[in-house]
Amino acid sequence: MDEAGEIVEEVRVENANLDDLAQRYAGAEAVIEATTNYYHIYDTLSEYLDVTVAHPSKLTLIANADKKTDRVDAKELARMGRLDVVPESYVPTDEIREARTLVRGRQTLVENRTEFASKIHGLLSDHGITQEIKPLSVSGRESLRDLSLPTP
Question: Rounded to the nearest 10 degrees, how much is the dihedral formed by the CA atoms of 37, 38, 39, 45?
Fold first, then answer.
């Protein structure tokens, strides 16, 4: 969008070469919405552009729009950027992103472990075994090896 509010070019991110796009508009301003995959887009564009990341839950004008399409949303983001009224979202540093990735990965592993332990407890319960076993501990795995369950 130019300074007069006219659309200069419409680009779909999945079809665009972001490096070429950023270089072509080097020095310009860009507004993107914080989504689950915005880091790559932000990192690529911010090498050449002044990128603002919009906070999705604070974009009430877009959320309350009668017509909800990517094209309408993008036009509204561009308009908000031109007027300098974008509700900004925090963009974490690379170090914080890495820490978040590690924490999320660990959380997933812990959730999986809990799910597997629950499934084992359910299987034992189905066979009338009610003794307390921590199935994923060393002693629990040894106890499970000693059990004789019918083949399903």
Answer: 140
Structure tokens at 3: 């300074």
Structural domain that includes position 58? 13-82
CB burial class (10 A; 0-12, 13-18, 19+) of residue 128?
exposed
Q: What parts of the chain have a pLDDT lower than 50? A: none
> Is the distance from CB of 144 to CB of 133 less than 8 angstroms?
yes
* Rounded Cα distance, 62 and 20, in Å: 28
Task: Write down the pLDDT at residue 61.
Answer: 61
pTM: 0.68
Q: Would you state the pLDDT for residue 64?
A: 61
- Cβ atoms < 10 Å from Cβ of 54: 21
50/102 same-domain check: no
